[in-house]
Each structure stands twice: as structure tokens, then as C-alpha cells.
Amino acid sequence: MGEFDLIDTFFTHRWPARDDVALGVGDDAAVLNVPSDSQLVIATDTMVSGVHFDEQTPARAVGHKIAAVNLSDLAAMGAEPTWLSLALTLPEVDEEWLTSFSHGLREICEYYDCQLIGGDTTKGPLTLTLTAHGLVPRGQVLRRDGAKPGDWVYVSGTLGDAGLALACQQHQQSISDSHYRRVLERLYFPSPRIALGQNLRDVASSAIDLSDGLYSDLGHILKSSQVGARIDVDELPLSLALTESVDADTAINFALTSGDDYELCFTVPESKRGVFDTVMARHPAKPTCIGRITNQPEKLRLEREGEPWQGLDKQHGYDHFG
């Protein structure tokens, strides 16, 4: 199978289509209709075999996740996902792998109403680079640099599950089969918090998605906003699978330092907490308040019962070059 047959077979037919795509897959470039009252938000992520996934990762999960990690970035900006472009580098044409991969990618495109509009295919070590585009009403984009002293710090979902799954794969932890299935699902098929991000446009002062670990990613908000934070580690939202599999301090470390959660961390001013609670009353899973922003630039204080908590692992989050 040649390059153009590959594109036609796996990435052209039976994919969702949007009315704002004037020209999609099949030409030199895509042509899109961008609303005049919106701003365009763009995010790009790369996944490399042997770094972000290995041969035991199902191809369907790889297809889902390469889209999900980008859509999570859009969620953190309050954007509505619209278009995706994919650069796919393959060592060879494996039709079974490509069928499963494209199925996983198409599923998430259908769920979030995204259209694949183009990209590139090349031969080489298995590498995937996806660019996601989204729209946000003009002037309503969420950013990292808006947190102020006194704002409350929230996170969505539960933290640390994907990290526990990875630790099990690397034979660093051993847990029950039922809990392993639960956390493996979180690692392989993360759910970008698109609806939450859009609901936060008018109430959050800052936001970020948790890709490298809460401690590290919250640090980006603190640096950009030139503020500090106090976090109560007892308030961190932990799943039953995590708390029943490891001791309390280990669970907290997973929640603080593990990557691949793809939840949202955000801040809400005291003056908007009432509005926030009203908005979240319609949300299926209300985010958890874990602390408060302080006026000590870039200082992140971890507390338990009001006292400093000293149990943090030296590894504070994933860093490709750390």
C-alpha cells in the first residue's frame, strides 16, 4: 500500500465532517471558515513510540490519546474543538495497526465534533504529531497568568490514576486486577474536560491542563501569574483504585507528580465562587477545591492539617530533558 492509498483508506472515508470546513483532506492544504466573533486556539503535541507509549499499548488507545492530549490543551483555554491535522511517521504500513489506530482517532473526533482536515505521512520511527484547532468567543480565552492572591485552587476529576497504571506496567507497583483495569483505562483513554473548560470562561481567573503532574503544572500558573499557593494534600481527589492500592503518602505523591491525568487545574476569585457553584451545579462531577493562591511568588506550600507536609518525592513532574 502506497502513501496516498494509506491516506484514502484510513483517513478519508466515514470521518465526521463540519460545515465550517470548505476544503479538507485531499488537497495541498485545508480551507476553513473562521467566525469573525471568535479567536482561533491552536495546540500541538507529539507522541513517540518508546517514550509516550510502547508495543503493548493498543493502537486504538494511541489514536484516542494523541487527540485527547491536544483537546485537553484546548479545554484549558476554554475553547470548542473544531479541526485536527495529523503528521504520521510509520516504520512500515501495518494495516491492522492502522485500522485500530484510525478507529480510536475517529471515535474521539465524532464525540467532540472535530474534523480531520489534513496532515502528512512519512516513513521512519513510529511518531505521531497532531495539531488541534479550537474556537473561543473573542476576549474569553482562559490563560495561565490571571491568578491573584486569595483565589481558590480547584482540580477536576481524580489525580494519580494514570501514574499508578504506568508504575504497574513498569513493575514498580502491584495491584488487584480490577483496580488495574480502572487505572489503565485512565492512562489509555483520558477524557479531555471540554465542557468544563467552556463553563469556566466567565468564572476562572487562570487554568491549565494536568499533563506533567499537578505540582509541576500548577507551578506554571504560579510562575506566569507571579503568585504562590497553599495546597492541602488531604483535599486532593483520589480514586478508590489508588487509595486501596498504595499507602496514603504514596497516593499523595502519585496525585502530585504523575503525568497523564489530563484533568484541569484552575483558580476562581472569591467574588465569583457563588457564580462558580451555580455553574457547577449543572456539571456532572463538581471539581474539588484543594487550596488557595498566596502573594508569595512561585512558592508552592504543601500542607496537612495546617502544617507543612514534607513527604513529596524528589521527582516533581515529567520533564523530557530533566
Automatic annotation (TrEMBL):
* Binding sites annotated in the UniProt record for ATP: 119-120, 144, 211
Task: Note the Pfam families from the entry.
Answer: AIRS, AIRS_C
Do you know which InterPro entries this protein is assigned to? PurM-like_C_dom (IPR010918), PurM-like_C_sf (IPR036676), PurM-like_N (IPR016188), PurM-like_N_sf (IPR036921), ThiL-like (IPR006283)
Give the reactions, separated by semicolons, that this protein catalyses. thiamine phosphate + ATP = thiamine diphosphate + ADP
UniProt binding sites for Mg(2+) 1: 44-45, 120
Q: What is its EC number?
A: 2.7.4.16
Enumerate the residue ranges of region (Disordered). Answer: 303-322
Ligand binding (Mg(2+) 2): 45, 73
* Similarity comment: family membership: Belongs to the thiamine-monophosphate kinase family.
What is this protein identified as? Answer: Thiamine-monophosphate kinase
The encoding gene: thiL
